[in-house]
Amino acid sequence: MESKSRILLIDDEEVVIDSCSQILAGGPYEIASASDGTAGLRLVEEFHPDLVFVDLKMPGISGFEVIEKIRVLDPTVVMVVITGFATVSSAVEAMKKGAYDFLPKPFMPEEFRLITHRSLEKRKLTLETIALRRDKEMLREHFAHIVSHELKAPLGAVQQNLFALEFELSDSLTEAQMEIMQRLKARIEDMLKLINSWLRMIAVDMDKLKDGFAPISIALPLSKARESLETLAAKKNIEPIVSIPEAPCLVNGDEISLSEVFVNLLGNAIKYSREGGRVTLEAEGGGDEVVISIKDNGIGIPPEDLPHIFDGFYRGKEAQTAAEGLGIGLAVCRQIIEAHNGSIAVESELGKGSTFVIRLPAVKPGANRIADPEAAGMAIS
Amino acid sequence: MTARIMMIDDDPDFVAGIRAILEKAGYNVDAAYNPKEGFQALQSGIYDLLLLDIMMGRGAEGIALARKIRKDPKLRAMPVLIITGIREQIAFLFPGQAVHPNFVDVDELVEKPVEPNLLLEKVSALLKASEEKKPQPQ
Questions:
Q1: Which of B54, B89, B93 to substitute to test the interface with A, most A CBs within 10 Å?
Q2: Which residues make beta-bridge pairs with A34?
């Protein structure tokens, strides 16, 4: 059962309040009224209206002021301005200040009913949107926990016991039984990987990330990425060609997450290269931007996959057979780079290789003592 | 001499999967399913290595236990292999980088589930490292 919608009428003309109340009488409404702005504002706090009708021309504080104050008190309250014909322009002004609609005087009962209905619908949608946003945030927070506890842990235990079984029975299993064992392990491993990707996607809280931004030299995360991929590169007989300027290229950002981006992109460049392929990692600064490009002459990305590769939960057909985990990785890269007010783009030709280019706003040397990320953001804009 | 290993993990099924591998390889394995019992069992001083889970009970109770061990003069030299599924949950944990939390003097970290060969390799390496650290065998 839905509760009654609360409507507040603020108008100095008693006749308007009376007639409006009469029009709505018998409907699913609870109605309160005030004859001036001050009393009206008090009622907003006590009565908690869903919808407020405000007359623009009243003695005491004006309708405009009432609208502005209600907006501060509770921005979800829907406000409709009642105004004379002569002041349509001021009604428009009121809408700019946050009123949802306006009703010119004189009006027919049917007009008033209609606008009431529409406004309450608006209020309902506003509240629903807020609830959905809150749910989404809660879901995000709890999802990682639920997924890791209820899905990942049991699957991990199953896999561990498969490992144990295979290890114990390694001398006595037939070839066909070994084959079954391999399939079991492979399927569970796929599921675990998927779960890990979800967790990774969920764990990126960009707002928290921005809180920790500080001016750093781009060389730091770049060399970290290079170091952590040394083994993988050596395995494929690839020696990445690195070119980073001597002068520090400063960006305002988070070193760990930028490292993650470069590990991801450089890792992909190596993974999707052939044995002994050529991978280059370049950074350029000096201007308003720091530009980092990561280039390989590997398998490339089919044109039909290119528009989607930063979307998340997407992995190109070529990549599916070549190696693991491209889909989420690039989506996370994009999220991280966008949180840094930067951009990421890709050019690729199937069979010839890919180039990923990241552009980040540069911080001028000397601005590196700025601790406040907001101030730093202003300094570089 | 057969090494004695203590495993503390709140998932008995997971413990079974680790224990079977270690026992087949000739180790003696005891298990406790919560940090409190585990710490009590460790007090006996007979264990050469601890396998420790991180997420137990209400949160990262394994970390609290590792800190307790580090402060305990009798136990602090005992090597610890952390076996955990936590890594993926930590945002921005450096990918591809070896994780050495250094909760105690000698420790290592592997992610759940652990391949038998990797498990045995880490266990034997930790046992060896702690043996070398001892001034003289007891």
A1: B89
A2: A10
